[in-house]
Amino acid sequence: MRTIGLGAVPKVVRSYHSYEHDEDPFFNKESPKYRILEKAMEFVPEYGFQHKAILESSRTFGYSDAIQSLFHNGTFDLIKFHLVRERLRLTEVVSKTEEFKQLSDENTKVKYLVKKRLEGNVPYGKHITQLQTYLVLPPNIGEASEELHKLSDDIRFLSGDSANDFAWYSKRLSLSTTYVALETFMAQDKSPNYTNTFELADKRLSNLGDLGQVYNDVEEFLFYTVNSGLNLIKSQATRG
Amino acid sequence: MSSTVLKTIPKGAKFSTLSQLRAAVQSTSVPDSKPEPPKQYEYGALNDVQKAFLDRVIRVDQAGELGANYIYAGQYLVLSSREPHLKPVLKHMWEQEIHHHNTFNALQVKHRVRPSFITPLWKLGAFSIGVGTALIGKEAAMACTVAVETVIGGHYNDQLRVLAGKFDIPAKDLLTGETVTGVTSDELHGLKETIRTFRDDELEHLDTAVEHDAEKAVPYWLLTEAIKLTCRAAIWTAERV
User: For residue A21, what are the β-bridge partners?
Assistant: First the structure.
């Protein structure tokens, strides 16, 4: 599996989240790689998600161009940095924002976090189409969809999701598809400050909340049918 | 399609065994508000193998308890009218299983473990085993309990053995600054205790079933061996899928 190896060993698959045992931080903020990529993001509004941004950034630090060999995935390193950093920012939002703590139900929290994540795209709004084009390229799509899944998993977890059956999957999958749709819309959005995108986010996510309920209701209905069917057979059998 | 379902069945309607099951499952949450004592140790990281193991343990135990819960639900549905004298016995075992199921549900949410992908299949399969064996007769139902609890008890023991042997994680003593081994974090200790208690409960069910004529079921060995095989296959699958 390819990794971007920012100093620490990146977690390829998320499993068992521990509270008392140290978790490896994904980013090693001291490493030159992190610093170059962080600075490179400042060049993105100008150059787009291109290798040129990394190059310009490393030159401002005075590194020789040979340091480019750190970035063997080229542009994708930059893109992944952006995706992971914006995703991890949500965890900070949850722990540090008072506004978030006052939100009552799960669905409003999901809305809030999705919008926060979309806000992370605002400075690079012009280049979202380009970003998405990179993400769906065959060499990148695996890692990109994994990152997308991690995003929806994080948002669901942080909003206090407590699904323990198949709803767990449907909730994450539906959030992922909605997020991609919203980002695609954002790429074409010409309204000031992307107000249309955020309005759409409100609308789309309101419908999403009912999905888990629908699943549970269908299961409930099937169970009820089986149950009453059995009772019918039992009553017929006793009558003889 | 779906919206009509929502309209005809009022939200939160409780009229079947399943909704009672679910109501119990949802109303319990992780008790997390205790004031914490000052930290004494700082524990090292779990390695990938240990994490993968814990991931599997929680997923398979959750699926297993879900199965047990639904087996008893099925048996109770049939036997509560046919064999009224067994009602309190079944009810007691079923309630314990509900508690186990809730506990693992809470752990699954807390530790961000994905639940088994085929939970609908587990529900259906477990419920049919429960109803099926109970329809054969109360002895068959008890033989089913014997088979299931034997496999589950053994499986819990296997897990405890690994948790005891492979989880010696070095910790830093925050007072002296020394690195010590042989201490267990509350998190892992709690998991071990949970599994140990649940194993004892399951073995108690096993005894109860034997006391209630499980061995008089007619093709006893066939029934128990078939169910044991099914359980092992289910465990293998639930760990992975």
Answer: B43
Whole-number Å distance between alpha carbons of A151 and A165: 20
In chain A, which residues have their Cβ closer than 8 Å to the Cβ of B111?
16-18
Q: Band of the pLDDT at B229, cuts 50, 70, 90?
A: very high
Domain limits of chain B?
44-240
Taking only the tens place, the pLDDT of each residue in B156-175 is 999 999 999 888 888 888 88
Say if B132 is an interface residue toward chain A (CB within 8 Å). no
Distance CA A103, CA A119 (A): 19
H or E element that contains B200 = helix B186-211
* Topology given in CATH for the domain delimited by A76-206: Tetracycline Repressor; domain 2 (1.10.357)
Q: Which residues of A touch B66 (CB under 8 A)?
A: 165
Q: How far apart are CA B84 and CA B86, in angstroms?
A: 5
Contact B111 A213 (CB under 8 A): no
User: Is A21 close to B46, i.e. CB distance below 8 A?
Assistant: yes
Q: Which helix (H) or strand (E) holds B63?
A: helix B48-82
Query: Which residues on chain A are in Cβ contact (under 8 Å) with B52?
Result: 15-16
Residue A53 in contact with residue B75, Cβ under 8 Å? no
What average pLDDT is seen over chain B?
A: 84
CA distance A128 to chain B (A): 30
